[in-house]
Each structure stands twice: as structure tokens, then as C-alpha cells.
Structures
1.
Amino acid sequence: MNKTQPGTLFLIPVPLADAAAQKSFTPYLVDTINSIDTYIVENEKTARKFLKEAGIRLPQQQLIIHDYGKHNRNSPVGNFFKQLLSGKDVGLMSEAGCPGVADPGADIVAEAHKRGVRVVPLVGPSSILLALMASGFSGQSFTFHGYLPIDKAQRSRKLRELEQLAERNRQTQLFIETPFRNNQLFEEVLKTCQPSTAFCVACDLTAESEYIKTQSVALWRKEKPDLHKRPAIFLIYRNT
């Protein structure tokens, strides 16, 4: 008796902002979502909204949706593989952006490789890469650090460390913060970093309110945008 060949795990990017669907998906992505009926998602509400915007033709009540969000984060990832191992193709979606990048979906992708499941990443928006592209900083060498420490003293030390890395390695340093703490982090950068350090703020990427600006810390001290509750990526670089 022949063993069933596993299905394919498609990594499906989700728009970063409202009303940005047309900027975010390709015809191939639309064809893909209309060829499968099973999804592993970080946020079911976001996933269903995106599938509707992207033009899924199958009635949503017929979809099989597995939630790997924060309330199910401790569930064994093997629970999500029943359909894949029976030969069905499955889509993996983050809440926003690319699954597996700054996203717990990486655990599911790792498990897919262990189980011999083919993994296919689809083209779509990544806030990290969009910010890097628009910053004017080095795209040859860069590091994404995720969230910096909440403690002010530890955060200041980390920022100084990133500034040193940027100068020593000619390497772009990227980091984020919970949107409601963006302004505090912004102020900490201005307080901690050298005036000549280049600093880029990229927020609301792909949205109509998109804001991307690069200038020295010295110039930023004269201009302080309100970043409260606006999804943002922060980048620093030293080119002197």
C-alpha cells in the first residue's frame, strides 16, 4: 500500500494595513487561496477578512481554519498537520505581513520540514523589508532585533549597543515596539543616540497614512511626529 504524499504548506502574506489588499497580493496568490480550503492562521478574524478581500470563491463556512494565535500557542503544533499529512494543501497566515518572519508561524514551518512537507513562500508585504528598502540604509548587512527591553536603563544600553554595531559593522539595525509605546521609544532614541546617527521611522506601511523619513538624530530632535498606536519599524545606521 502506497503511503499518502503530504500536501504543500503555502506561506500566504497578509496586508499590513486596512484598504491595502490591492497593494498586497498577486494573481498567483489569489489562484492559490482558491485552490485550498484549509488554513493555519494567527488570527481567524484577520484571516477571514483578508480571504474575502482577496476574492476567495469558496463559501467561508466551508473553510477549515486552525488557530495558532496566543490562546492556542501552547498546543502541540502536530495538531495542525492532519490535513497536510492526508495530502491536502494548506495555507499558513500571520496576523499581518509574512508568516514566519517575526511571527510564531515559524514553529509550524519548522515542523513542516521535519515531517517532509513541501513549503512554498508566496510574494507579499513584509514591514521589515519595506522599511529597509525605504530607509536608504545598508541592505547588504542588517539585523532585526524585534522588541527592545521595556526597562528604560536596559533599553538605553541596548540602543547604545545597536549604535556601536551599526558603526563597527556598517550594519543596519532594525527594531520595533508595541504601538502604544512608540513615542517613548522614539524619545529614548533621541536621548541616547549620537546626534550624527542616522535614524529612520517607517510607520503605517502600505496605508494611506504611511510615513517614512530618514534623517540624523540631531534633526529628529527638532521634529517629533506622533507615533502613538501606529505600527512602526525603527532603523538606525552609522555611515561616518
2.
Amino acid sequence: MVDRLTPQRRSWLMSRVGRKDTGPEMVVRRLLFREGYRFRLHRKDMPGSPDLVLPRYRVAIFVHGCFWHRHAGCSKATTPKTRMEFWSNKFAQNIARDKANEDQLAERGWRTIVVWECETKEMGELREKLCAELEDAKRTIGEPHAARR
């Protein structure tokens, strides 16, 4: 499929894609808040500026778009047919940056959780995943208080 937009128009359009307060991020924020977890948003002093940070549990959560961050096996992780070399490099850089951020956080004693865009469609499974991860984080750091329900 050929892009119907000029490169300048495509660039302008892509520059409008939000990085904060995306739909999937808002789903995760609402779910965690409803479960009693409190968090900070977009901590710029941390590697990768995680979307949500739960300092009490030393957990950083990234909400990744399947296309941009290459969710393996996901139908949303398609590769454009034009400028394939550009896109391959772009995606490789994104993956490398994500890995470096997770490694740096781990070195600082933080646990990272990645929530994929497609996972925000199934609320029951997402709730199970996040609550299990956070309960495990609580046990790991010896947190005596359970989240309010």
C-alpha cells in the first residue's frame, strides 16, 4: 500500500501522536486507582520516564503501543511496506531503548511492568496481571499493608 500523504504531511501527522495520557495509559491508571494503588506519572528523573511509578513498591509501569514498541506476535505490530529500512532502524532503536531503560531501572532496584496496548482491551486479564505483579512486589519489599479494595 502506498502512502497517500506527502512526507511532510505524514511527518506533521505523526508529530501529533500523543506520548502522555493515551487511551491505553488511562485504562491502566483507572484500573490501578480503582484497586487502591496510588502512583506518580511520567517521572522524568527515572530512565525512560515511566508512565506510572509506584514508589512504595519500587515498580515502574510502561504502557507501550504495540506498533511502536513491536509487541511480538501482535496484529498491531505491522511493518509499513514503504521505507522499510527506515522503519526497521526506527523499531530496532525503540526496542534497544526500552531494554536499556528496563536494565537501568533494574540496576537501581526497580521492578518494571510492561502493559501492551492490546492488553488494555481485556480488563479482567489486565487486572489479574497487574494485581499479581504488584502483590509480588509487595512481598519482595516486605510491604505490610495491602492495597485498599
3.
Amino acid sequence: MPTHASHQEGRLRPAPESFLSDELISEVSQKGVDTQRRQLLRGAFAGALAGVSGLAIADDPNIIEVPEWSRSLGKAVATNPYGQPSIFEANNIRRQSPGLTQTDQASVAFTPLQNLFGCITPSGLHFERHHQGWVDIDPRRHRLMVNGLVKEPLVFTVEDLLRMPSVSRMHFLECGANTALEWGNSAVPTVQYTHGMLSGSEWTGVPLSLLLERAGYDQNANYLLAEGADGSGMTRTINLVEALEDAIVAYGQNGEMLRPEQGYPLRLVVPGVQGVSWVKWLRRLEVGNKPYATKDEASHYVDLMPNGQLRQYTAIQEAKSVITAPSAGQKLLSQGYYCITGLAWSGRGSVRKVEVSVDGGRNWQEARLEGQVSTKMLTRFNFDWVWRGEPALLQSRVHDDTGYIQPQRAALVAQRGTRSIYHNNAIQTWRVSPSGEVDNVQVG
């Protein structure tokens, strides 16, 4: 179980509180921010900035002295032909979990959600789950076979697929075991470890339906077997009817070819479905009429129920949300205004509404949804909050467009018990202490 909370990388910089009136602070704390209160906040921010500018110039050597980077030539493009992050962002990396990593090959690497903005995860920070390590396949030798209940079995090269009609769509990818360690009574130290098997990308490739139509698939078939070319031979049964709606045989991610760790040169994208079904290094698609009960869907990725039975084929990732800042391992540096921010998503459709509570779920207020809300994709939400130094319990809950509402932990545990691993979409709680320290607690 990871205990190294010192690895938390986020720092929260509050606006000074002195420029906010007590009346405005009370209004924001109790009622959130509507159009009128937002205008008042903007005016207060502008006034505060004008008031400190003279003092900053007089006292800050970073303003009155010319820094070295402004007195010399920069580096040549050839120095860095493939762009890399700033050296000052070297701590913004994926991290492995001692509790879930079994070997160097069978491993998990968590996305640093607390440090990211917007909804797109940089390819180099996208979470990884490997069952036997990653491989870098020569695309000239790779083949994709389509067989089973089809009129004409086909074999495609990567070049064949690159020449076919393509689509680009943004979707989240979440491991079925995301938030697994929260089922029990232990609370891991940061959002990177609680929810970091989650990322959002733009995926580019050929619609699955186009390939199956070319092969003449049996219209009465209900299942699809996807097989990977890595050493683990990962194979998964997929609901064919749902996959025909929006699944993609992808070769691109975030505007470039897939990274090797993400399945280069081909992977299956099945929006809304748990990540293990997004088979990497995709080599075969077989159309069938019954579930295949492969090794990784008979002994793994099954839900242990309170009565001891195992539930299979629960692939959909239900609606879920999490506050990424402030979150566990971070510290509020002083009292004042903060923008609570986080992510929401649903494997069944789109986010309709996100609510935030600062008192452990007793009262809820609606957050703002930022940017475009896309189906089966991450949605960024923001919520205005003024912290006066009091203890707080921060939570978020999402409503999706099917009417589903993210459950409290107690309600989910009542149905599922505490011995499960997969598909934990309970409301997450972060506790803020009077000192400003934020940690992970379980409520209910």
C-alpha cells in the first residue's frame, strides 16, 4: 500500500483574502457564485492586483533585475527535435503503486491528475496497465485479422488501415480497477493513487463497423473477441452491438501515432468500457455468438459480491467524478478564495451536471462545467470556494444524461460489500484540516 504522501506534487496558490469583504465571503461560502457575485469577485481581484503592483516592483528582485534568460540566446530547435516538458516540471510524472505492481512487467503507472488542466491527458502522462510489459512492434510486420462469423475473413496491414476512411473522437479511458484500494478501510495518500488509472485522449482510426462490414459479419452475432499481440495474449469478449456504435481500431492518439505503451501500432478503442477491453497491439478480431470466457474475464476483472459469487462482464464504467484540487497530499497555503476543480465522466453517455459539497454531503451546490461536454469523455468542472480556516469535507457527485447519480460510498458498499476490486465509482472525500492539510478520508 503506498504511504509516501511526500510524492504529492501539487501546490495551491490562494488569492489574498484581505480584498474580499466579509459579506461577499459569506455569500460565496453559502450560495456559491452566480453572475452578480462573479462580477463582484472580478472587481475585487482587479482592485487587489492594482493595489499590490507598486509594492511588488519595489521589493521583488525578479522584477527589477534582468534575469539571465533575457540576456542570452536560446537553444536551437535541433537541441530538442521532439518536444519535452520543462525541467521545472520533472516531478510531474506517472508513478507506480507498490500495492498493485507485481513485477516490472505486470505493472500499473498512475496519471498525475492533481497536476493536469482541462480534459486531455498528455500522451506521456497517460496511465499504463501492462500484463506482461510493453512492446514496440514493427508496423511493417504487424497484421490485423478479422475472422469468425464473417463471409470473408480479411487481413489488414497498418498501411491498409491508414488509407481507409478515419474518424477522430475524444474519449476517456479508465481501468476497471481504478479506485480499487478505496473498497476497504485503507485510504491511499493522493488522487494520483486513488483515481490515476484514468486519462482522456483524442483517438484516431478506422471505425470498427467499417472493417466488419467489409468482412460481411453475421448480423445475428452478438459478441466480438479482441486479441492482442503482446506476450500476455490479452483477449477480451466485447458486446458487438454496442461496439458497432462507436468503437475504433485506432492508430493515432492526441494527433500522433500511438505510443508503444499505448498499443502501437494498433489498439481497440471501446468508449465507455473498462480499459482492459481496449486491447493493445491489436492483432485479431473474431465475430462470435457467445461470450468467450477467456482467462482474464473468468479469473480476473470479475466483481466479488457480498454473497461470495462473482459477477462477470460488467464492462461499463458508470458515472464518476473526483476533485483533483484541493486533494489529498496538498496543502492550502492560507485562507481565502480557491477554485475547486475536478473531472467527471460517464461510460453511458455525457455529464449533465456536477455538484460539489464542502461539508461531507450535507449540502450540495452546482459546479460549472468547463469547455465542451462530449459523450464518454472527461468533463472539467470548477467551483468557487472561500476557505476561512474551518474543517471541511470536499466531495463531488456527477449526474449523467441517463439520469444516473454517482452514489455515496455507503450506498455502494451496501450493494457490493468491501472485498471487491473493480468498478468502484463511489463519491470521494477529501478532508481539509484547520492547518490547511488535505488528506483522504472515507465518509459513510
